[in-house]
Amino acid sequence: MRRRDFLAAMGAQAAPRMNVVFILADDLGWSDLACYGSDFHETPNLDKLASQSVRFTNACAAAPVCSPTRAAIMTGKYPARLHLTIWHEGAVRDVTDKPLIPPKTRAELPLEEQTVAELLRSRGYSTAHIGKWHLGTATNYPEAQGFDLNIGGTLWGAPQTYFYPFTGNKRYGGEFRYVPGLGAGRPGEYLTDRLTDESLKVIDGQRDRPYFLNLWYHTPHTPIEGKPAYVDYFKENLKPGLKHSNPGYAAMIRSLDENVGRVLRRLEETGQADRTVVVFTSDNGGSVGKYEGQVNTSNLPLRSGKGSLYEGGIRVPLMIRYPGNRPGVCAEPVISNDFFATIAEWTGAPVGPQDGLSLTPLLRDPRARLGREELYFHYPHYYDTTTPVSAIRTRRWKLLEYFEDHRLELFDLENDPYEKKDLSSAEPERRSALHERLTAWRESVQAQLPRRRD
Q1: HSE, side-chain direction, 13 A CA sphere, residue 186
Q2: Which of 71, 98, 101, 185 has its CA 20 to 30 A from that of 54?
Q3: Does 14 score more than 60 pLDDT?
Q4: Listed residues 371, 403, 424: the one ending a domain
């Protein structure tokens, strides 16, 4: 949609001054919320937000792991173009026990890239980052990437513990971790609550100036630590045959939901809801690994999970609420790269070339389509759920290329959304055409590739 049409729809004076609250969960799977089909997790506040929003059913994370997706959100560019395709610690660690050697990738979000925070600050916005960052060391922390305020954003991808004082060294190879900027607390305090406390201060303190609140929760990333009372509640309600069955994980989802509700209520109480856009999504699919012997979550009916380029690893919940919107369900495929162009349009900010498209047309009409034929993914690394792989996804078809043996897999997502039947042999022409497009895209973004050992 053209900018003048958007302003007409939103109000010519309101659109450039819209606040933006961007809430990002960590490792939250596509089916982890009740409004996306969970049979165990309780998410009344997020379900209510979904009913007020455009809820996307084919939203994809730009990568199957956290840092690359976060970089795509910040810059609007594919992780492969940024050469930032794995999390910070993974980028600085050598892989010596696998058939392929992953490429040496960037461990930090480059300072020369324009971030959405820098863009909005140049438009007079107050900018605050609260929670997980995981995009570099101190020289690349949020303060160096356009944020006026940073609470909790560090190089680390997970907290030592979710309970006060949020410090210790019993995990992660004995490394001492902490969450800076929270100040004094008291025993029993829960990290998800504390991050919300700080977010409410931002909302209260910026009533007369537009702001960008980047609230990136750690929940429900490991360690799987829910509030004890909530864990007990879900243990009592656990039944055989459920898709989701981890009481600790369910307790973490409940706290996430409660705290999103706190943010939404504060926007209402302060009279800001009618001039604040709210985005809620996740950085990758749910983790199907185990923590202390218990599987974290399930992405069923989708295949696999975090780390994989199957749908369970990249499809995520996404809901966007903006004042005056028409709530609905949108099936158009979208990706994390799209947030930059979308937020820029909301706030009237000019942007340069991007790998994403504005989602505004879909917010006006959830049945609309974007002028885009395909999405691309590139993960040239190893994970418990995958070997190095790239993928191309159209509305209907998806092709994956695995680099160890250059195996191609082809799925008809329209008739087989769960990727059970590989059609690469039955559809050789389609397989070749999609592979050519995937190869051409990798060359166009100068994607880094793994190599064989000598």
Answers
A1: 0
A2: 71
A3: no
A4: 371
Tell me: cis bond preceding 223? Omega within 30 of 0 counts.
yes
Give residue for tokens 């759920």.
Answer: 385
Asked if residue 345 and residue 432 are part of one domain, the reply reads no
| Claim to verify: residue 278 and residue 306 sit in the same structural domain | yes
Give me the numbers of helices (H) and strands (E) for the chain, helices first please: 13, 18
* Closest alpha carbon to 317 in 304, 303, 329: 329
Q: For the segment 147-169, what is each residue's pLDDT rounded down to a tens digit?
A: 999 999 999 999 999 999 999 99
Q: Is the pTM of this model over 0.90?
A: yes
3-state secondary structure at position 52: coil
Question: Does the structure show a pLDDT above 90 at 67?
Answer: yes
Beta strand 397-402 with 407-412 is: antiparallel
Range 97-113 average pLDDT:
97
Q: Which residue has the tokens 């995009």?
A: 135
Closest-CA residue to 316 (of 375, 365, 235): 375
Pair (77, 103) in one structural domain: yes
The two structure tokens encoding residue 385: 């759920």
389-393 vs 375-379, strand pairing mode:
antiparallel
pLDDT, average across residues 286-308: 97
